[in-house]
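protien #1 (seq + structre)
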Amino acid sequence: MTELNRPNINIGKHLKEYVVTYVFLILSVIFIIVSGRPMNDILFQIMSRLVRNLFIVLSLIIPIITGMGINFAITIGAMAAQVGMLLAINWSLTGIAGILVSALITVPLASAFGFLIGSLLNKMKGQETIGSLILGYFANGAYQLLFLFVFGMIIPLSEKVTIVGATGVRNTLDLTINKLQGAIDGVLRIHFSTALYIVSGIILVGAIILFVTKRMSSRRFYTLGGLTVLFLIIYHLPFVQPSFANVHVPVVTFVLVGLLCLFNAGIMKTRLGQQFRAVGQSRTVANSAGINVNRVRLIAIMLSTVLAGWGQIIFIQNLGTLQTYSAHEMVGLYAGAAILVGGASINRATNGQAIIGCLLFHTLFVVAQDAGTVMFGNPVVGEYFRVFLCYGVIAVALVMHTWRSHTAKKKMSALQA
């Protein structure tokens, strides 16, 4: 009887953990149908949003595993990246050279900011998520002061980036002038079908090698191989393939995303990664084991801040314009909401959850306005709805985390009694 009931228990637990993910999946399907928007246009927009946002979402994983919650202070990393982009434009650097210089400038700035953020969050243990959110708002004030008064008045800049006849940086900087737009995305682009065949081939060859060398179980091997073949079959269905006609994949951008996924997975197998996990599971136990908890937490935030800065560079070069005073404002909230949609929690996250969450979150963003127009005759309703979902998902995650922590403490107290 126990064996029969066990699968039901597992399914119930799975549904409880991923309820937000399934709700977003259902809403996405409903909104796609209701919106009446052509599927090829929807998929084109989704691909564009994944290119812009996926790297930033993945930058949240390490602090979550370390038990520091969602690092909303990645907004500050985005600010560091925008300083780098501003200087690259000011110095008339073009193409990949401008992107590389921006990335290099981002590293020391974001590292320094990450050190300050981590040092402060070490004084706010248990309140990191809220603390990082407030830090983002505080830093935004300093950023506005820097770009409005310091740049152009104290630090001289060229007229290409400043407001002529006044102080401060222009509201919008055009990246096409310096050929920075698409500097990464435009290096190599291939059609979705080609990318699908390449990725499927890599997965199948990798799975075979791991299976032959006995580093992958037969069950996982057949599951992975079966899913890969299934996706290929689905793609070749007559009503599916035309929908991807306009979808192209920027290879270099997704290689960078893939490298970040490998970095997130690889670092967890190192001594530092084991310390990340130990600190995330229990600071008390980690401290007893001789781990410098504050140092490990500091490193996690610094890594996340630098990675988010690089992600913002990818975002801006894809967009083609730098909205000087507002491009960074919603970075933390949107990235945090996206990773939570994928099934991550305040103390648990994976690459897969980040990718799935980014896909579902931005799918809903693409179709929400059109669905709002069809259902209510007003596209603004769709806009308000998706903003509501963004904040709502974060609120639900915080409530669920608090509820689970409270339940765990009650169980522990009951066992000790």
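ok now protien #2
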Amino acid sequence: MEKFIIEGGRQLYGKIEPSGSKNSALPILATAILAESPSVIHNCPRLTDIETMRELLHYLGVRTEWVADHTLRIDPSDLSSYEAPYDIVRRMRASVCVLGPLLARFKRAKVSLPGGCAFGPRPIDLHIKGIEALGADVTVEHGYVNAHAERLKGTEIYLAGAHGPSRGATSNVMTVAALAEGETVIYDSAKEPETVEQVKFLRAMGADIEGEGTGTIRVRGVNKLKGAEFSVMTDYIEAGTYIVAGAMAGSEVEVVGDVAENLKPVLARLSETGCKLKVSDGSVIVKGHPRPSPVNITTAPYPGFPTDMQAQFTAYLSIGEGTSIITEKIYPDRFMHVQELARMGADIRREDAVAVITGVEKLTGAVVMASDLRASAALVLAGLVAEGETHIRRIYHIDRGYERIEVKLAGIGARIERVEED
């Protein structure tokens, strides 16, 4: 097992470029199996989660190959299985994205209940509700979702849940509707950029679909879809992580990529803390602001403040002046990073879904444990500014969503290395 060793206190300077978006690429790879011919996906990140999805696709009979460093070819012409097994699905929640495409292709699907980051329950009730509305009979037995349908027929579906729209449920319903009979209207659909990109990919495959980003998606089913060539969007959460790194430890850091539009609430909150930003279509330049002013943040579905940036902001505000409050409305248990930040000297009090952060003058290096993907990123950020050395264990979590993060950060001056555990 590997860990990171970070020597804190080094100033960051220069350009850093995020990879393609994991959260966009994964549903696109699953969607590609709807076609009867190959697709070519460019700007696909080289991540553990992408390899897990490839393993799942191979199990289903789909052939995939890297034809260039970040270009993946997906050939579903030999798709032969409708079962996604526990041993693969348990490792990554996004595996549930194959439920809709398998049901659309085979009129049946058997998919293990998903795993992934362990920060509380994330039920798939909206996924089930959506595909049942399209005509599927669904049971959950022995840890598997079993769905079958004699006929899939378009209808009107309302997908709002207790915490707002579901990106995953929207993904599965869209893919089923693309090959169902008649018209489907999905109300309260996800508005995230990843959903918009998936709709664009479906349209490139020949789907009759519109309304992306509006909260109401309309799909008119077609008889078949073809493979398409598509480029994955830049990962704006990775970009946001590097922007926060620049705010905490940078003299001047330029994060390259067209990400500002998708990061509006993040950039607005950074500005409120006193951070200086220069925003353009092709990059965001951030100047270090090591003692941010306090802010109150509540996570929300897009276009609100993203839950995937909550942990990074917790690290940032932990070295601020005054008291900040973060309320987690999407995943109320997503605070496993708090106890590890406390080991580094952070003063954070958690009250259910609320973190009360009293800023301290400095953090100190410690041995800490990564618990999930974004918590890992928060610990890296804290390590960049902590006094002394920070050892971050279980970094396989961060490899699920950040491609060569230690190489990228070292390129702008961080002292960070990946080593084998003793």
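DSSP finds 13 helices and 24 strands in the chain.
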